[in-house]
Here is the input.
Amino acid sequence: MLESLGRIYNSLSTLPYLMLVILDLDDTLCNTWEALRLALIRLTPIIIMKRKFKLIAYFLTKRYEKLESIRDIHLLDFEGIFNRIMEDIYRDLDKEEIKEMLDLFDRAFFANLKLYDDVLPFLNELKQMKAKLALVTDSASSWQRRKLEVLGIQRYFDKIIVSGDTGHTKLEPYNFYLATKMFPKEDKIFVIGDRDDTDMKGGKAIGATTILVKRGYFKGRRAKYADYIVNNLYEALEVIKGELKA
Here is the structure.
């Protein structure tokens, strides 16, 4: 596989394009949904011990799905989202109980947060191809930047745009336009992410080639805005190769 990536680079190294690749973080580069799931499983015994059965029902019935389209949720970290959920379910909250659950969740989440196997080869090849890399991601700034620190990939990005910093989420195209303004000379733009109605829609708004990676929480959703649908970042690199040679 690495030899294949090397051949791709050699064939593209002389092309005259200035390239910008805008990447999503969660479930595109790292297994956020899986880490969340495992952390919640780790939290379940405490939830049962504290008799928070309504909270268990909340997750079992997937009531969290309604949060996907709420703008403010995309500006929060897990603590903020969890507090919002608890306030919605319970009238009286014990702050010490909440803190205990959040501390356990935090440890379990970051213990299970991992890069996908294709991420480092993909990022290294893009840097060798002289691409500019911008990360556009939703959530609280401290939460996303901590993920980057734990994952060890912050150094790959020329710019990092977080909704918690800008006040704009990927439910609107503002942060994608912001990325293009930061790199006005780049004439080939690609947007790569796992969510069609944010990453792909935002990419379309700025005239980028959009590449949907089918993995993570949104894997089973129908795509409307993606130019290409791939299973991994190796395939995404093949798409970039083809577009640059076209």
Remarks:
- The longest strand covers residues 132-137.
- The beta strands are 19-23, 132-137, 159-162, 188-193, 209-213, 228-230.
- The mean pLDDT is 89.
